Amino acid sequence: MAPQAQNILLFRDATVRYGRLTALRAITLEIPCGSSTAILGRNGAGKSTLLRAVLGWQRLTSGEIRIGDAHPQHARPRLAYVPQRHAIDWDFPITVRGVVEQGRYPSLGLFQRMGHADREKIEGALEELGITDLAARQIRMLSGGQQQRVFLARALAQGGDIFLLDEPFAGLDLFGSEELTHILRNWEAQGRTVLAAVHDPEIARRCFTRGVLLDTGLVAAGPIADVLSPANIDRAYRHGQCVHDRRARPAAAADLPR
Amino acid sequence: MSAHDLLVAPFSYEFMRRGLLSAMLLGVSGGLLGCVLVLRRLALMGDALSHSLLPGVAAAWLLFGTSTVALFFGGLIAGLLTALGSALLSRMTRVKEDAAFGSLFIVFFGAGVALISKLPTRLNLADFLFGNVLGVSASDLGLALAVSGCTAAVFVIFHRSILLETFDPVFHRATGGRGGLVHMGFLTLTVLNLVAAMQTMGVVLALGLFLLPAVTAYLWCDRFTSMLLLSVGLALLGSVVGILVSFHAGLASGAAIVLCLGFMFVVSALFSPRHGAVGALWRGGSR
User: Fold this and answer.
1) Between the CA of residue B10 and those of B4, B90, B133, B240, what are the distances in Å?
2) A93 and B160 in contact by Cβ < 8 A?
3) Which of A95, A103, A155, A157 is a Cys-bridge partner for A80, taking CB atoms 3.0 to 4.6 Å apart?
4) pLDDT at A129 over 70
5) A39 is a domain residue
6) What is the pLDDT of residue B136?
7) Is B221 near chain A, with CB under 8 Å?
8) What 3 state SS string does A96-148 have?
9) CATH number of the domain encompassing residue A189
């Protein structure tokens, strides 16, 4: 059965140019909700631009994106965003609970205090990701996997059903990656929509059911195994970059709290 | 010398009461702004910004005399020109923002010093640079009250936006926050406070009242709100002690306040149990 319009992310000729540089070229694509999709491609292939466009704060040069029936800016309550790890200042004076509470801020008025329903969402998110016991800790005092869970909990507390993750596996050690894979698979099983920019095809194969392969233009989209066929990978990464170019990772110990 | 002579008698002079009140008012707003400066790593930019106010203030003085309003707008215009100018330079040329800011502010500062050397002789360059508590007029105090009140109100009303924009600007924007607006508003508030703090602290030292309490609080607090509150408390304490020290030791008020706040910072950097240097050595690691 075809999914209803409410449950589709639709890209029609979506194009983004920065000056003379084309970051995203005429993407036409449907992503069904309720699945987990990896957005793949080499650096500069348009992964982040695509995410930003779905979030509604990268304007398209031409074409359109619809989330259900809505323009991204009107679909904002459905969207929850998880930033890259390196974008976060881990020394910031804030606790785990403080970060998760931020998930409720967008839906609060200027002078409105958090109500019972907000508290419940926050507790629920902490509980679901198993970080209730860590709630009073400063965020540096966590392992890499735990840190990632804090930001997933903030996204949950937002109450949306579409989760946009920017390179969620970057900088995670092996254990952290396993943890995250487990969580994201669970989310998909619960019917949540996950859209993640992913650098590493091997991780994408293990963790996601669908894939979108970009090379500024669309190379392939569909079930992950089909998308990551040798021919497609060759096309998407042909600009002299090696597919299995795993950048030197810090040793596992470097990811533990200092 | 009795406690009365030490602590109370100095404030029988009106200029001392004005100086103290002005420093305390700006301590409240400076303590708040300083936290954002520290957490967004804008400390050096704030320093540059404060230096760049000088030509605006001097030009206003040349054209309009000692009017507080004129000095205020002169400083404001010079500060905003530096901030906007360096943003434009970094966007339109290959010069990066730090170099753009550094170059512009030093040119502005030089122009300010040149202008002041042309001012009627009664004025002292040192007072501009390092502050003179004797110079705080009733209208200066009014300005400090207005600026401090505005800043505190903004922090109370927009507490959540400020936290989001400071901690995670991308998330803030992704959830419909007006990141650019918050950032511009923050820069404007900083310039306003620097101008208002100039009489007591001087352009070179004014930032000390903002930065030092905040960076000291940063060494103690693991929550944003407690950092804000502690920073304000430290700024108030430093202002009172500093003004008293300046009276008894005959020091420039700005220098005395900065030294008091600096003492608290050094002690905290060494001995804060969780984030200080001695504790880290004791635990046998870098941090």
Assistant:
1) 9, 49, 13, 11
2) no
3) A155
4) yes
5) yes
6) 82
7) yes
8) HHHHHHHCCHHHCCCCCCCCHHHHHHHHHHHHHCCCHHHCCCEHHHCCHHHHH
9) 3.40.50.300
Would residue A213 count as lying in a domain? Answer: yes
Chain B stretch 149-178, residues whose beta carbon is closer than 8 A to a beta carbon of chain A: 157-158, 160, 163-164, 166-168, 170-171, 173-177
Q: For residues A217 and A28, what is the distance between their CA atoms, to the nearest angstrom? A: 9
Q: Which of A154-158, B72-76, B89-93, B132-136 has the lowest mean pLDDT?
A: B132-136
C-alpha span between A230 and A232 (Å, rounded): 6
The CA distance from A178 to the nearest CA of chain B, in Å, is: 25
Residue A253 has pLDDT above 60, yes or no: no
The backbone torsions φ and ψ at residue B285, rounded to the nearest 5 degrees and listed phi first, read -150, 180
Domains of chain A: total: 1
Output the average pLDDT for chain B: 88
Domain holding A117, by residue range, is 34-53+79-241
CATH number at residue B15: 1.10.3470.10
Answer for the pair B133, B21: CB distance below 8 angstroms, yes or no: no
A95 touches chain B (CB under 8 A): yes
Judge whether A191 lies within some domain: yes
Beta carbons within 10 angstroms of residue B94's beta carbon: 7
Is B286 among the domain residues?
no
Is 50 exceeded by the pLDDT of residue B204? yes
Contact B167 A138 (CB under 8 A): no
Asked, for residue A58, whether it belongs to a domain, the answer is no
Q: Do B86 and B106 touch, CB atoms closer than 8 A?
A: no
- Cβ of A158 within 8 Å of Cβ of B221? The answer is no
Contact A111 B226 (CB under 8 A): no
Closest Cα to residue B244, out of B42, B24, B25? Answer: B24
User: Cα separation of A48 and B61, whole Å?
Assistant: 51
Give the residue numbers spanning the domain of B44: 3-274
How confident is the model over B229-270, as pLDDT tens digits?
A: 999 999 999 999 999 998 899 888 888 999 999 999 999 999
Nearest to A57 among B168, B173, B286 (CB): B173
Instruction: Grade residue A249 by pLDDT with cuts at 50, 70 and 90.
Output: very low
Q: Does residue B284 lie in a domain region? A: no
Domain assignment present for residue B12? The answer is yes
